[in-house]
């Protein structure tokens, strides 16, 4: 199945009228990594986008990056650019005698509304440190410094670090890579079957030792370094004990539960329904946390007031 043939998984409802529909895919894997339930074909290849970051962080650890605590959480992050995010990235770089001038990610501005306002008020424009992937790039640079690899071309798909990312991706997803493209931040991003993303997150969340446990523990201990205040994945990790979660661009959501089950969602049009569908799928596992209500809360507005919602339609 291609994304063009994906089933309807959500409705946009305005005052009781279905205004739009979202097609998409969702898959739940059991602790063994096998498909427990799927909506659409879970073998459909997708780009995980920023949901890949925990696996990229593992590659950085394998490259010798001495990432722990907040620095490791930032290596998994799509941060909102709060001052403490940026200071954390700078500190991580400095720990390996690097500076923000060594970053090669796409320049950008903070994602957080308040952080952006403060950034602009201070006279800043697009800078690499403010772009949401700067923590990941700091981790990659630290691996290069530790392994004696070149830092100028660490985003080249042929670089040893990027080869390690592909190796880690195959190992944790259990899937072959279909193609490799360039992500928004400039790093290579592989495409692989959606089921592999769910499987990888289940394995990360259930890890009892090693690099996977280090990454999962850092995400759980510092959920707001992984995203920021109000970000769905951060709020969900803060609310549900043992869970890890990471959103990606174009409506990708990945979740791992401490018992080894995993979830991955991809909305075909890359729009806003990913978190709503993820919440509905998690409820089928018996999770009825208040956090899922917040995750699924995507209002439809009329004249500034809530007049409807995006509603999951998982059968």
From TrEMBL:
It comes from Propioniciclava coleopterorum. Pfam families: Asparaginase_II. This is Asparaginase.
């Amino acid at each position: 199945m291609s994304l063009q043939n994906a089933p309807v998984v959500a409705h946009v409802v305005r005052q009781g009228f279905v205004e739009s529909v979202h097609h998409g895919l969702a898959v739940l894997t059991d602790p063994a990594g096998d498909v427990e339930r799927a909506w659409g074909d879970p073998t459909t290849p997708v780009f995980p986008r920023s949901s890949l970051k925990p696996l990229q962080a593992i590659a950085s650890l394998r490259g010798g990056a001495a990432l722990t605590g907040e620095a490791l959480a930032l290596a998994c992050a799509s941060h909102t650019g709060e001052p403490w995010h940026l200071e954390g990235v700078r500190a991580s770089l400095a720990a390996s005698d690097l500076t923000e001038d060594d970053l090669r990610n796409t320049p950008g501005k903070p994602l957080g509304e308040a952080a952006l306002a403060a950034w602009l008020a201070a006279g800043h424009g697009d800078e690499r440190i403010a772009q949401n992937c700067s923590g990941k790039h700091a981790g990659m640079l630290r691996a290069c410094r530790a392994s004696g690899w070149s830092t100028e071309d660490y985003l080249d798909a042929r670089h040893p670090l990027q080869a390690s990312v592909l190796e880690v991706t195959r190992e944790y997803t259990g899937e072959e890579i279909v193609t490799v493209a360039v992500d928004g931040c400039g790093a290579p991003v592989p495409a692989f079957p959606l089921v592999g993303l769910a499987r990888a997150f289940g394995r990360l969340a259930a890890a009892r030792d090693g690099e996977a446990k280090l990454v999962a523990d850092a995400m759980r201990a510092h959920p707001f370094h992984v995203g920021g205040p109000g970000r769905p994945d951060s709020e969900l990790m803060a609310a549900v004990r043992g869970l890890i979660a990471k959103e990606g661009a174009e409506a990708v959501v990945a979740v791992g539960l401490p018992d080894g089950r995993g979830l991955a969602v991809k909305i075909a049009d890359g729009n806003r329904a990913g978190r709503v569908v993820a919440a509905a799928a998690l409820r089928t596992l018996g999770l009825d946390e208040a956090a899922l209500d917040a995750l699924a809360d995507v209002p439809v507005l009329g004249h500034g007031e809530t007049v409807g919602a995006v509603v999951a339609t998982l059968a």
